[in-house]
DNA sequence: GCCGTCAGTTTGATCGTTCAAATGACGGTC
DNA sequence: GACCGTCATTTGAACGATCAAACTGACGGC
């Protein structure tokens, strides 16, 4: 196949210079109308496309954002991340940005990858997910002043007023709070919470939303596992038959609870999940929807500014370095 | 922050030339041991990283593969694609390749994106998914001799002996065949198939696997939808109570069937799904696992050769232009 | 008639790497 | 001792775009 045309080829055909072609492509408004039309015709005639690598080299910008994919966990929770990746790709495309995936099995491996990608100019910024207390990645990135945003708050002293870095997260407490309020409004008075063992920031937040919604009822604890959840709920219901609603920290737990409720022959008990995965949708359970689309928009807003098209390094300012998305209860 | 070091900086510190540094990075075996060690020390000391864009510009290779993400459908089936993307990212990383996502809502939009990405040198090849009969994308790509592989067969006259392009797919008939055989082995003799309306290649394949496994039993047809599936199965069972096994074309359908079976109080009926999504796992249903990891490996093998590290344009040769993955029945 | 301004366009330099060809060192062969 | 081949390394050029600065007319003010 013939060599791909370059700016010079277009310039020759249109009877202008390289730079004018470049201007037509990048900043059309500074070119005179007549010239612009001539150049555009030449571009169309030759089928010219800017060569991405050359542009990246000169501008020192890749217009690409990296995002980590965990080793596939198999569980239900991965769905939220996948939806987030979907949404991020769509939103990024609207701002002329690309999304590059990278895989890593351990934080150390991930740090090595991050170095290659960011310092090699492969990406302009990264989105890291699943942050935890004392996460080595954030410190490493901050030390080098590399641009990034995390999906998941820093879990530091004060994430909002003195944020260590940019972050986006879903307000888990608001989600379980809404679920609890919904059950209260439907006449349930004794509402249980089915959650994970304490210490995980996310789980604690979700529990807080239930507790603060004036819910009286037992708190059941179990690992993230459908059949374990089922057993815990079965035992819990036997001990406390007055429960008429169960708010769960995840959809996996909700499915377990649903199975226990069904087996116990207690259709009067309403189970509400968290994440609104296809699995609970199929079962007809209500669930808290994380709105990954809003999370994706928020991440880009933080990295690039509200309407920017380039990644601009930003110093985290009190109150302005995060986006906290209010989830939505999907009632079924 | 200080300017990132370049090959020249490393060369100066190590007392060698640019090119030798480049050789140490790319073809270490042609550099004398002593020199190599000196250069490696300099690289480590300066924290040098090759600049991706410069390398891409010079080598005319991006070492990146593009893959399309459909607009998020919400259903269960998207999970297989997401797992495939996961696996592709991991396998690609092992071959020093990156995976770039792109979004498009229509085939036309996708073609525009493909042009930008491939002809602009942003990616070396693309993986297209969800091919259908008369797909405009494949023709467009073939016309321009752009490297690509599809997840999903071309659905042409003879995909195997006279393939139009490279493709990977899962042997759907083998999957439903295995499911049917499993039920027969467990003593079921009357086995129903719950599938989609005819005409979709994928669905027809899956039905064929059931039919050819010497299964006698009704064939129920319904759109991909949990509650519709439930209703169809409920009606079917009422009309034909002798059925003791149901092989389904998807997990969504299987969940519907499972609900109908449960409501009908027929625990003797076994339901088998297709895709092995977290949802059926949570419900404890058996399902046919597509093995997206093998599909990903197959796609890369086709694009780059068994052990290659660069995308090599390949002419589809009879029998050697596809990978057909044998799925695995997961019994629960 | 001269000068400054400004919009529109062109020119030269540069981004960091790898390719292709040239160079140098060394040993073996006749 | 001249020649050749091989191995390790160096040198000059090129990849295709954009930045920054220089240039060109046209226009208006004085």
Description:
The structure is a homodimer. In chain A, the strands form two sheets. A six-stranded parallel beta sheet of chain A has the order 2-1-3-4-5-11, with helices on both faces. By secondary structure, chain A is an alpha/beta fold. The longest helix of chain A has 17 residues, at about 80-95. Chain A is elongated. The model of chain A has no long low-confidence stretch (mean pLDDT about 90). In chain A, helix 6 runs parallel beside helix 7 and helix 8 (about 170-185) packs parallel to helix 9. Helices cover about 45% and strands about 15% of the residues of chain A. In chain A, strand 8 (about 245-250), helix 11 and strand 9 (about 270-275) form a beta-alpha-beta unit. Chains A and B meet through helix 4, helix 5, strand 2, helix 6 and helix 11 of A and helix 4, helix 5, strand 2, helix 6 and helix 11 of B. Chain A binds a DNA duplex (30 and 30 nucleotides) through helix 2 and helix 4.
């Amino acid at each position: 196949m013939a060599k791909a045309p370059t700016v010079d080829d277009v310039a020759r055909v249109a009877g202008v210079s390289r730079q004018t072609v470049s201007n037509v492509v990048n900043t059309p408004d500074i070119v005179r109308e007549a010239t612009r039309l001539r150049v555009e015709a030449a571009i169309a005639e030759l089928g010219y496309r800017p060569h991405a690598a050359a542009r990246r080299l000169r501008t020192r910008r890749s217009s690409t954002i990296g995002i980590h994919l965990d080793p596939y966990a198999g569980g239900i929770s991965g769905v939220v991340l996948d939806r987030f990746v979907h949404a991020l790709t769509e939103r990024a495309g609207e701002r002329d940005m690309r999304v590059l995936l990278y895989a890593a099995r351990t934080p150390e491996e991930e740090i090595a990858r991050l170095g290659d990608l960011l310092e090699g100019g492969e990406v302009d910024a990264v989105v890291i997910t699943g942050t935890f207390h004392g996460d080595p990645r954030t410190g490493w990135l901050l030390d080098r002043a590399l641009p990034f945003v995390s999906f998941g708050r820093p879990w530091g002293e004060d994430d909002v007023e003195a944020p260590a870095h940019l972050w986006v997260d879903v307000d888990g407490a608001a989600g379980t709070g809404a679920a609890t309020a919904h059950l209260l409004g439907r006449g349930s008075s004794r509402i249980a919470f089915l959650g994970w063992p304490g210490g995980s920031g996310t789980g604690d937040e979700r529990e807080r939303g239930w507790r603060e919604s004036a819910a009286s009822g037992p708190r059941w604890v179990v690992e993230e596992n459908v059949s374990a959840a089922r057993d815990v709920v079965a035992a819990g219901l036997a001990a406390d038959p007055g429960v008429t609603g169960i708010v769960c920290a995840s959809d996996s737990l909700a499915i377990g609870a649903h199975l226990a409720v069904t087996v116990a022959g207690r259709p009067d008990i309403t189970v509400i999940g968290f994440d609104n995965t296809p699995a609970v949708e199929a079962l007809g359970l209500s669930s808290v929807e994380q709105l990954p689309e809003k999370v994706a928009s928020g991440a880009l807003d933080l990295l690039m500014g509200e309407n920017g098209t380039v990644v601009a390094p930003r110093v985290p300012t009190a109150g302005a370095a995060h986006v906290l998305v209010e989830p939505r209860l999907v009632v079924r």
